[in-house]
UniProtKB/TrEMBL annotation:
Record bears the keyword Transmembrane: yes
Entries under Gene3D superfamilies matching the protein: 3.40.50.2300
Taxonomic source organism: Bacillus infantis NRRL B-14911
Protein name: LacI family transcriptional regulator
GO molecular function term, any single one: carbohydrate binding
Tagged with keyword Membrane: yes
InterPro entries per the UniProt record, alphabetical: Peripla_BP_I, SBP_2_dom
Length: 332
C-alpha cells in the first residue's frame, strides 16, 4: 500500500470516528438540553424523566408540563419536556427513541397511534419504563395510563348537546386528527351519545391537524357547503376556538351552538361572550403531576395501578364565575 493510500485511509478513519462521536453527542444533546450541566449537579437528583407531548407549545400541554414539573421539583427529579414543536408522529416517535437511547429512568408520553406507538413502546419498555398520559396505547406493554377516559368524554359532550338543543341539530365535527386514539375515541363517544336521537344528524367530520387556523378554515368551509349546520363539536383544545372565530366573523352567534374541549383562556372568553356554549373539562395539571409520582412509585417498587382516569365534566357559561366588573351577555 502506498504512503498516500495509508494517509487517505487513516484520514478517512479518523473523520469517521469523529463524525460518529459528534452524532452521538448531539443526538444526546437533543434530549438532554434541560439537564443540569454543572459538575456533580446531576447526582443531586434521584431520577431523570422525559415527558413527550404531542406539541410543545400547545397551551394544554404546558399545563401538563406545569403539573409534572411541580411533582419533579418536590421529589428531586430531573424532568425534561421534549418533543415536536408542531404535532408530528415521526418527531414524537423519534423523541421517545432518543430518550430511551440516552438511558433516562422513565418516559411519560402519549400513545397516539396503536400501529406506530405500540411496537416502539414494547421495544423500549424492556429497558425504560413507559407511562402513557392523556392518550393511551392500551394494547402496548406500557406500565400504566393516566388521563381522561376519552370515549366517555365524547359521550358527555354528545349528551350535553342533546340536552341543550332539545334533541334537534345538524352537527359538524372538527377533530384534531383522524389517526390519534384520543381524538378517535372522542368522536366515537359523541356519535354513540347522539346516535339514537332521530332529529340529530351529523353532517360532516373534518380534521384540524391540532391547529386553530386549520379549525377555522374547516369551519368556514363547512358553513359554506352546509349553511344548515346548527351545531359544532370540536375534539381538540384548539378546535372550538377556531370554530368560534368563524361563527363570530359570519355573525352567526345566535343560531350556531359550539361544544369544545378544555378550558384555555380563549375558550372561556368565548363562553363568556356566548359564542361557545359548553366545553369538556379535563385535568391536565393533575395528569402531569400524578404521572411523575406514579413513575417514582414504580421505580421504588410500590404498586402502580395500570389505569387511572382523571375527572371529566361539562362546563357551561352558567358554571363560570361572574365578576362584578364584567357584564356577560346571555346565550340566545
Amino acid at each position: 500500500m502506498s504512503k498516500w493510500s495509508v494517509f487517505a485511509y487513516t484520514s478517512l478513519s479518523f473523520f469517521f470516528v469523529i463524525s460518529c462521536t459528534m452524532a452521538v453527542f448531539y443526538g444526546y444533546k437533543v434530549i438532554a438540553h434541560h439537564v443540569p450541566q454543572e459538575p456533580g449537579k446531576l447526582e443531586d437528583y434521584r431520577y431523570h424523566f422525559v415527558l413527550v407531548p404531542e406539541e410543545l407549545d400547545n397551551e394544554y400541554w404546558r399545563l401538563v408540563e406545569k403539573g409534572a414539573r411541580k411533582a419533579a421539583e418536590e421529589a428531586g427529579v430531573v424532568l425534561e419536556y421534549a418533543g415536536p414543536n408542531q404535532a408530528s408522529i415521526d418527531e414524537h416517535l423519534e423523541t421517545i427513541e432518543k430518550a430511551a437511547a440516552s438511558k433516562v429512568d422513565g418516559i411519560i408520553t402519549q400513545g397516539l397511534s396503536d400501529e406506530q406507538f405500540t411496537p416502539l413502546i414494547n421495544k423500549v419498555v424492556g429497558k425504560t419504563p413507559v407511562i402513557t398520559i392523556d392518550t393511551d396505547a392500551a394494547n402496548s406493554e406500557r406500565v400504566a395510563y393516566i388521563g381522561t377516559d376519552n370515549y366517555y368524554a365524547g359521550y358527555l359532550a354528545g349528551r350535553a348537546l342533546v340536552k341543550d338543543l332539545n334533541g334537534k341539530a345538524e352537527v359538524a365535527i372538527i377533530t384534531g386528527n383522524f389517526y390519534a386514539n384520543h381524538q378517535i375515541q372522542r368522536v366515537n363517544g359523541f356519535k354513540a351519545a347522539v346516535g339514537s336521537e332521530k332529529n340529530i344528524r351529523i353532517i360532516d367530520v373534518e380534521e384540524s391537524e391540532i391547529s386553530r387556523v386549520k379549525a377555522a378554515e374547516k369551519a368556514y368551509q363547512i358553513l359554506k357547503e352546509h349553511p344548515n349546520v346548527t351545531a359544532f363539536y370540536g375534539t381538540s383544545a384548539l378546535d372550538a376556538i377556531g370554530i368560534a372565530q368563524v361563527v363570530e366573523m359570519m355573525q352567526r352567534q345566535g343560531d350556531i351552538y359550539v361544544m369544545g374541549f378544555d378550558t384555555l383562556p380563549e375558550t372561556l372568553d368565548y363562553m363568556k361572550n356566548g359564542t361557545i356554549q359548553g366545553t369538556v373539562v379535563q385535568e391536565p395539571f393533575e395528569m402531569g403531576y400524578k404521572s411523575v409520582r406514579m413513575m417514582i412509585d414504580l421505580l421504588e417498587g410500590r404498586e402502580v395501578p395500570p389505569l387511572v382516569h382523571t375527572d371529566t365534566k361539562i362546563l357551561r357559561k352558567a358554571d363560570l364565575p361572574i365578576s362584578s366588573q364584567e357584564q356577560i351577555r346571555e346565550v340566545h
